[in-house]
Amino acid sequence: MGKAKMSGAKALVRTLESQGVEVIFGYPGGATLPIYDELAKSSIRHVLTRHEQGAAHMADGYSRATGKTGVCMATSGPGATNLVTGLANAYMDSSPLVAITGQVPRPMIGNDAFQEVDITGITIPITKHNYLLQKASEIPHSLQEAFYLASTGRKGPVLLDIPKDVQLEIFSPHQAKYPALEGYRPTVAGHPGQIKRAVTLLKSAQKPLIIAGGGVSLASARDLLVRLAEKADIPVVYTLMGKASFPNSHSLCFGLMGYHGRIEANHAISNADVILAVGTRFGDRSTGPLATFATQAKIIHTDIDPAEISKNVPSYIPIVGDAGQVLEQLVELVPEQKHDQWMLELRETAERHPLKGKSSGVIIPNILRILKSLVQDPIIVTDVGRHQIFTAHYFPVDSSHSFVTSGGLGTMGFGVPAAIGAKVGRPDRPVIDIAGDGSFMMTCQEVAAAVAEDIPIVVLVMNDYCLGMIKQLQDASYGRRYEACKFGRNVDFARLAESMGAAGFKVTREDEIAPAIEKSLAAGRTAVVDCVLDDPGNVYPMVTGSSLLEYVE
Amino acid sequence: MRHTISILCDDTPGVMTRVSGLFSRRGFNIESLSVGHTELPGKSRFTIVTTGDDAVLEQVRKQLQKLVHVIKAWDIKQNEAVEREHALLKIEVEDKRRAELLQIVTAVQARIVDSSASIWILEVTGDTGSVDNAFNLFKDYHILESIRTGKIALERGPSRVMKK
């Protein structure tokens, strides 16, 4: 940064450039106009969204598809509060994000000024850290610190709230000394003693199992996990967030675990004698009832966040550290082993419990099967609901950063904007959002943003004219009293898409599925396929009792 | 189970909200909280007294430790620390009871820090038990107002959280 005096807004844009930011997803307002004025002179791309929630999800999707830190921006007041769902979503799934919000000028803060809201107060529980900047000279350092915090340790969103007069304030940039972050020192390498204990325990195991969580992907440690599993011949199950953490078609992979998990995966958890859990927080959808979870197993839990150790599930050997470093340490020391008997047990269980989805008709499993045959190495994005679980089961992904889903918060409406962000980050890969009709309607206005910005995503709307997961729960637990789950008036999603300038297709017969998908992939522009399902079909397996072994399939 | 938690943190705006928010989110009532400067420039130290299940409290401690401005959060063991509270009581003094009240003031090592015609302000310092005891003895008199600080606690011996 030169010695010349500059405004806070200019310093902000300069610092974003020096951080390597390529794109900002945002929506302007009165309190961010000085920044936009500088952004116009910058090489950084700005994607104008149709709602600030979309901006946050786009930055999130961008981050998940690339591993980089996503950036979103909104104005003060309602602009900032509209980011809240997106920030909470990124926080729950440990997605690195930097959010910038405008704030009313300093002298007006606390006066209930027009479009004033205490966004740093609001976002304390849903950000890793946040700042309310008081001086333009703080901007360069705080922004650098925000990127550092977002992308290290347990990753997550960081918010900077910048009053408009601070953006306009002229200052002389200088190399001031700032205090180090004394309270922030993430443990990266696993403790050697704990690593040795873990190796000894793994060596002694007859029925070892690896749980792959989202932390493996966040640490870019997927290949190391494959090496470890192969070397020690250990079967792998994954959480929803960990779906892309291990190649799904690998012979050691036994699928999704948990509440909607595969029978063989949950059988493995319930019968394993040693479990190595990597980068998972043992969320309730992954464990089912805790009292009966993995009762036969001694658990080695490795996570970058010490607060996750023994939070939900007691760990026998905790290892705090980065998944990449810890797995490297383990791969080094673990001996080559064979667990033929255990593997046979799991394979037989798997054969006895195939997925029951039919490969005919306009139903989600069949659409996903056809999609799989028509597209090479896509990034699959999902919304939240029945289609999300179907996708986890019926669309195997084998490369990294291939599965983008809202795991922890379960945010309906995540899909379309997350897919847009993913496509901006990875224009070389097909990006396909599998949506439900409920989820799609929550953020479908972002299709217009994708069209305007020429971002060719494909959205497949699994349209059953109802809230499928709600209906499934009402089936299971509320005597089929379908209250507030049917939409009443149906929307023609193909025409809705066309009205926004996207290609729209409608599928009502099985023989229309493949042509519609082919056309949408070849359209070269944003495309929406309205798949009118002829049998909504509940998603199974589903745990129904007090343990993972009591289920409907 | 009652716990005393000590937190060393940066002295920065908003740190109180971040700290207390973690307690309320877990449904913990903060019985007392005191915060002030330390021998380290730019650093504050909290002493928080709270009641709760050990495992959940350990989770709160770990979450506190994750706050960027928190340098260290730890549980102080009562028998390894010196603990003090401070209280002020405004008492209306009747002439005929002045002598006996003075006896109690001496007995509990309180100090009269302000006195006017018939109003005394007493200062009491001690561990929680001693301050409770003083309040007990004064309760038969006409207490107009009283106030207690939160507890502060320092571990015995040469240990220190952080060097300058």
Portion in beta strands of chain B: 35-45%
How would a textbook summarize the main sheet of chain A? Answer: 6 strands, parallel
Helix content of chain A: 25-40%
Largest interface: A-B, 18 and 21 residues
What is the CATH class name of the largest domain in chain A?
A: Alpha Beta
CATH architecture of the largest domain in chain A: 3-Layer(aba) Sandwich
Rounded to an integer, what's the Rg of chain A over CA atoms?
A: 24 Å
Please identify which CATH superfamily of the largest domain in chain A we are dealing with: Thiamin diphosphate (ThDP)-binding fold, Pyr/PP domains
Question: Outline of chain A, from the CA principal axes?
Answer: globular
* Number of contiguous helices of chain B: 4
Structural class of chain A: alpha/beta
CATH class placement of the largest domain in chain B: Alpha Beta
Q: Measure the end-to-end span of chain A.
A: 61 Å
Q: What's the mean pLDDT score of chain B?
A: 93
Our count of helices of chain A gives 23
User: Portion of residues in helices of chain B?
Assistant: 25-40%
Secondary-structure element string of chain B: EHEEHEEHEEHEE
User: Which consecutive residue ranges of chain A, at least 5 long each, have pLDDT under 50?
Assistant: none
Subunit arrangement of the protein: heterodimer
Structure description:
The complex is a heterodimer of chains A (553) and B (164). Helix content of chain A is 38%, strand content 17%. Chain A is an alpha/beta fold and 553 residues long. Chain A folds into 3 domains: 6-171, Rossmann fold, CATH 3.40.50; 192-352, TPP-binding domain (Rossmann fold, 3-Layer(aba) Sandwich); 364-542, Thiamin diphosphate (ThDP)-binding fold, Pyr/PP domains (Rossmann fold). A 6-stranded parallel β-sheet of chain A has the order 3-2-4-5-7-6, with helices on both faces. In chain A, a hairpin with a 7-residue loop joins strand 21 (542-543) and strand 22. Chain A is globular. Chain B is an alpha+beta fold and 164 residues long. Chain B folds into 2 domains: 2-76, ACT domain (Alpha-Beta Plaits); 84-152, Alpha-Beta Plaits, CATH 3.30.70.1150. Chain B is built from 4 helices and 9 strands; from the N terminus they run E-H-E-E-H-E-E-H-E-E-H-E-E. Chain B has helices at 15-25, 54-66, 98-107, 128-138; strands at residues 2-10, 30-37, 43-51, 70-76, 81-92, 111-115, 119-126, 142-148, 152-155. In chain B, the strands form 2 sheets. In chain B, strands 5, 6, 7, 8 and 9 form a 5-stranded antiparallel β-sheet that branches. In chain B, strands 2-3-1-4 form a 4-stranded antiparallel β-sheet, covered by helices on one side. In chain B, strand 2 and strand 3 (43-51) form a beta hairpin. Chain B is elongated. Chain A binds chain B through residues 120-121, 124-125, 128-129, 132, 149, 154, 179, 181-184, 305-307, 311, and chain B through 9-10, 13-14, 17-18, 21, 25, 42, 59, 62-63, 65-72, 162.
